[in-house]
């Protein structure tokens, strides 16, 4: 499935995304298409603006699909740092599910921190059980995300309206 250009599309790395319902509600409110990409196990949303793309099982298959689709006017929702780096390189806006953006300005530091923590875990057998488990996802994270996505779409939809 190829998506036409000209309007912002939200691509969601949906398998472990805790804010799928918020994304759907905000996308519908803005009249924006959202594409939930996963390996399966997610129930389709009945609204015509919300698509579900089920990719084959395998490492990074959903990430590869999203990275190939996401373009400069699009938004990608993910916690996957390598996917975010590829999509930033395509010019897409990236939001993490906690509402924090990943940008050209901060992706280098985020990648460096990720690599450093992987090295620390590899060097210290006591940290082997905690593979990147951070703090729990909170109601405040959910609210921050909703506000950030709403503002990002407002700016993009406003810009599109001026250009047309």
Describe the overall structure:
The protein is α/β, with parallel strands linked by helices and 164 residues long. The protein has one domain: Rossmann fold (3-Layer(aba) Sandwich). Helices cover 45% and strands 15% of the residues. The chain is built from five helices and six strands. It has helices at 20-30, 61-69, 81-89, 104-123, 139-163, and strands at residues 9-13, 33-38, 50-54, 75-77, 93-95, 101-102. It has a six-stranded mixed β-sheet with strand order 3-2-1-4-5-6, sandwiched between helices. A hairpin with a 5-residue loop joins strand 5 and strand 6. Helix 2 (61-69) packs parallel to helix 3 (81-89).
Defining traits:
about 160 residues; alpha/beta; Rossmann fold; six-stranded mixed β-sheet; globular
> What's the architecture in CATH terms?
3-Layer(aba) Sandwich
Percentage of helical residues?
40-55%
Provide the gyration radius in Å. Answer: 16 Å
Under CATH at level 1, the class stands as Alpha Beta
Beta-strand percentage range: 5-15%
Total number of distinct structural domains:
1
Strand count: 6
Profile the largest sheet.
6 strands, mixed
Overall pLDDT: 85
Number of helices: 5
Q: Which structural class do the helices and strands define?
A: alpha/beta
Sequence of secondary-structure elements: EHEEHEHEEHH
- What is the strand arrangement across the widest sheet? 3-2-1-4-5-6
Stated plainly, the CATH topology is called Rossmann fold
Intertermini distance: 26 Å
Low-confidence parts lasting 5 or more residues at pLDDT below 50?
none
